[in-house]
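Here is this case:
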Amino acid sequence: MEVIVNKNTVEFSGLLNEDSAAQLIQNALKEALKNSSDNTVYVDFSKVKRANSCGILTLYKVLEFLTGKFVYVKVPRWLVEQFNISDFLNENCSVQSIEANFYCPQNDTHENVVLILNKDIPILEDYNDFKLVLKNKDGLDLEMDFEPSEYFYFISAAAQKLRGSTTT
């Protein structure tokens, strides 16, 4: 795993697995906290292609012992799925934006789109009837290639918390 600290943002790339050193992750987050004027660190896993349970557990344990506010940006699908099955978003963590898969029926293509919470995705307590149709760069309609009530479950489960913590 590679880690880049850019002021108060930490960008991860590679694989998050049993070979990902907790000390490397912790040192990067601590450095970003020192660079932050308000004790907020933006955490970007969009370049991490895969993660396994060992890597996710390492990250969870590192975050558990750090003091600060951690805001996830451009959250990839594998991490959204983790948010949906665990208590990953504790009082120190929130989400600014996520990646989501969309399908364009006009040209039979798939696109990965970054969606900003409280802008592109309203913070709701129920996404059963939620529809989001976007346009691609060619002006063609994009349809959600996921079930909103499942994919956005972590948002509805933490709606009150996220309403107060999202930034655009």
Remarks:
- The first strand starts at residue 2 and ends at 6.
